[in-house]
Write a structure and sequence with these properties.
The protein starts with a helix and ends with a helix. It has one domain: Na+/H+ antiporter like fold (Up-down Bundle), CATH 1.20.1530. By secondary structure, it is mostly helical. It is globular and about 65 Å long. It has 17 helices and no strands.
Length: about 400
């Protein structure tokens, strides 16, 4: 930024367009995230060109990602997480392994590097628990067996996905892909997760009980954010992404008696930082690659089409991991399709680490948006059909 004026105008523009486009998305019965991404495309270099990412805006964007995963961790009940059962675990594992494998092969087939293929596979492993939960809630189906399996699987999916992100990030930074490296990075990620959650769940309730007796306003929220930033910082020290640490921090604090207060009070901070994260992600999208009449773009558009088919079908397959009778397997599989915020974060991490150029990044964003747009429509049709048959 060349001046305080330009910085403040940039902040005002990002937040203004985030809310306007987010509102339009909600009116169209889509996630506000889609609107925020499109806002970034609109005000970024592809169209208006009024926002250009700078070091300070990048830092604000990274805080947004940290807050996003912190809130996701806070919203995860560890007890319920442990009770979801074998079917949810089976769905989650199939829903990670199959998309990863096919995403990797598609990128290799299109002549991209091994590092790019590894990261593309990681992007396709994600499932947006928030978007799926919203659809089940709107149709009053949140208490069905299918919904419980899906939501449990989506949480497990995200945890596995964050571990995979830690591994692939380490690999692309180190440049060597060997079994020993994968085992080492996976082991450190799992060890950090287990030790952090185990130690945190023992210490945090007592610590925050003491903090709750302090008289300053919003002290619990502030100390919750401090805890989040501290765990995120330690995660980066052991070679993991900061968002892995923030998710763990939220997971730990979800066990305290103050979790609901923290979750409630963090919402205004979430409303400020998280939309900025998605808008700034959108500014990196190069819409010129979607012009079919330019010959060099056709391969990217074919890549998008193939990736979308792979992204959709490989998650649908996961639903058939449930062998129990009386369960709508297709409904479960389709519910796992939307990549949403987690997939976007994975793509952004790859872009920031120079794994993808703007064309490849734009292709992945397009696939994530398509899965997020189309899945609610298909899912609603399946639920309504189930109602008619039931």
């Amino acid at each position: 930024m060349h001046s305080v004026f330009e910085f403040l105008i940039a902040l005002a523009s990002i937040l203004f367009f985030a809310k306007i486009f987010g509102e339009i998305a909600l009116k169209l019965r889509q996630s506000a995230i889609i609107g925020e991404l499109l806002a970034g495309v609109f005000i970024g270099h592809s169209i208006l060109g009024i926002i250009h990412e700078t070091p300070i805006l990048t830092s604000i964007s990274e805080v947004g990602a940290v807050i996003l995963l912190f809130e996701a961790g806070l919203s995860t009940d560890i007890k319920e997480f442990l009770k979801v059962g074998g079917w949810a675990t089976s769905v989650a594992f199939i829903g990670v392994i199959v998309p990863y494998f096919f995403g990797y092969l598609v990128f290799l087939y299109f002549g991209l590097s091994s590092a790019q293929a590894i990261f593309a596979g990681a992007v396709l492993t994600a499932t947006s628990v928030g978007i799926t939960a919203r659809i089940f809630t709107d149709l009053k189906k949140l208490e069905t067996k299918e919904a419980k399996i899906v939501l449990g699987a989506a949480v497990i999916d995200d945890v596995i996905g964050l571990a995979i992100l830690a591994v692939v990030l380490k690999l692309v930074q180190g440049g060597t892909v060997t079994f020993r490296t994968v085992a080492s990075v996976s082991g450190s990620a799992v060890l950090f997760l287990v030790l952090s959650v185990a130690a945190g769940t023992l210490i945090a309730p007592t610590l925050f009980k003491f903090i709750s007796k302090m008289k300053q306003k919003h002290i619990i929220l502030v100390m919750g954010i401090v805890f989040c930033f501290a765990v995120s910082a330690f995660a980066t020290k052991v070679g993991l992404a900061s968002i892995v640490g923030s998710f763990i921090a939220g997971l730990i604090l979800s066990t305290t008696n103050q979790s609901e207060e923290i979750k409630r009070d963090v919402k205004p901070i979430y409303s400020f930082f998280v939309p900025m994260f998605f808008v700034l992600m959108g500014t990196n999208v190069n819409i010129s690659v979607f012009n079919f009449f330019v010959a060099v773009n056709r391969e990217i558009l074919i890549l998008i089409a193939v990736l979308f088919v792979v992204a959709f079908t490989t998650k649908v397959v996961a639903g058939f991991a449930v062998l129990k009778k009386g369960i709508n397997k297709l409904l479960i599989g389709v519910s796992m399709v939307p990549r949403g915020e987690v997939g976007l974060i994975f793509a952004e991490v790859g872009f920031k680490n120079n794994v993808f150029n703007s064309n490849e990044y734009s292709a992945l964003i397009a696939v994530i948006i398509l899965t997020t747009f189309i899945t609610p429509v298909v899912l609603k049709c399946l639920l309504l059909k189930q109602n008619e048959n039931g």
